[in-house]
Specification:
The complex is a heterodimer of chains A (about 375) and B (about 70).
Chain A lengths: L10 H15 L3 E13 L3 E7 L4 E7 L12 E10 L5 E10 L1 H19 L16 E6 L4 H13 L4 E6 L7 H13 L7 E6 L13 H9 L4 E5 L7 H5 L2 E3 L2 H8 L3 H61 L2 H6 L4 E3 L7 E5 L4 E5 L8
Parallel strand pairs in A: 3-5, 6-7, 6-8, 8-9, 9-10
Antiparallel strand pairs in A: 1-2, 1-4, 2-3, 4-5, 11-12, 12-13
Helix pairs in contact in A: 3-7, 4-5
Chain B lengths: L7 H16 L5 H24 L3 E4 L10
Helix pairs in contact in B: 1-2
The chains are: A alpha/beta (about 375), B mainly alpha (about 70).
Chain lengths: ~375, ~70
Amino acid sequence: MENTTPPILAVSDFIALTNQTLEYAYPNVAIEGEVSGFKINQNKYVFFDLKDETGSIGCFMTVWQLRSAIEDGMKVVVVAVPKLTNWGKFSLTVQTVRPSGEGSLKKSFELLKTRLEKEGLFAIERKRPLPPMPRYLAVISSTQAAGYADFIKILDDRWGGLRVDVAHVQVQGKEAPDQMIRALRYFNTKEELPEVIVLIRGGGSADDLSAFNDEPLVREIAASRIPTLVGVGHETDISLADLAADMRAATPSNAAQIVVPDKNEIALRLEHRMIGAAAQLSQEIDRRREAIMARLDAAVNAIKRQQDRYFSQLEFRRQVLNELDPNKVLQRGYAIIRGKLAVGQSIEIETNSKIAITEVRHVKNKA
Amino acid sequence: MSKIKPSIREQMARLDELLSWFDGDDFDLETALDKFAEAKKLADGIEQDLMIAKNNITVLSEQFDREKE
């Protein structure tokens, strides 16, 4: 008969062996349950129990791993490694915990929103304006997402000459927040900073969009040196990332409409402004023309008046001249005598109607 | 050395400056004609640039699925 006596192990060896076996059987396990006895010790360690109707298991994690607001009664899914502690207590070492189901997601959203609001992360005063005509954009999205295609199409339709650097990341699932955080950090530490970071994702269920309510991601958006524009889901979906961003777009398409102006509108506006300037110019030309015409009229009138004055003076002189006309004298019966008044000389006598040649027979001086 | 063409934003700023002058108190016809000609040329140029310019979209090769070493 074979000897079946088991090997004798030290307690710590047994614990180590058990943990090895557990790790082999459950490298990590996802468990859904309700949170009970949630507490944070020394602002570092998180403890709670995960329970259902008949069972309960203790959970442990660090504060920095806690990315959603959790409280007692909330339904959550934990991803964890089962572990037997050195004191023989069985617990789950939690890697991630996320609210599960619409009610818990909503509750977690509201809890975190209230907390971050109190910290001032969503304050209007923190919001920075986006540049009106950016030249360099950073886009964080999944290039396979429909929302990304919509964004790029509308961007291309509206504006040109942009440099657009796209960070392809997951936009849903447990890896998504960290990938988006890395992309935000990447752009924020570039030598040449983009002028705007646009974070976009198309529509989805509350669970799909829950990555955008991740606390570290929300804080990273709020801390960005570069102004941020977040367009996630549909018009009615509001995430904490939206609230922390400098500007919220209702959808990815709306993000494209916000981030760049419409070139056709700009062209039309340019045309209107040029028409306005041309009208001003034309008005000024008309005003000048009228002023010149008025001055010309005044000059013509002045010339006319002077002309009239000359005419009148000329008329007066003409009358004087008329009076001096020798013919007028002859008409009154006088005569003009031409020649030398000496005896024997011929002289010419001109009257009004006749000219006579006579000889001088006698000359005497008048008394 | 070739002169770098101003960006659309810079050209728009210059156009705004020119057009604002038309609303100002310094308006005089002789300068207005020159400014209008410059503004018209600029507006035509901007419109042309807007209509032909294409966006340069680059999907980065950087991976964001893990922390940089």
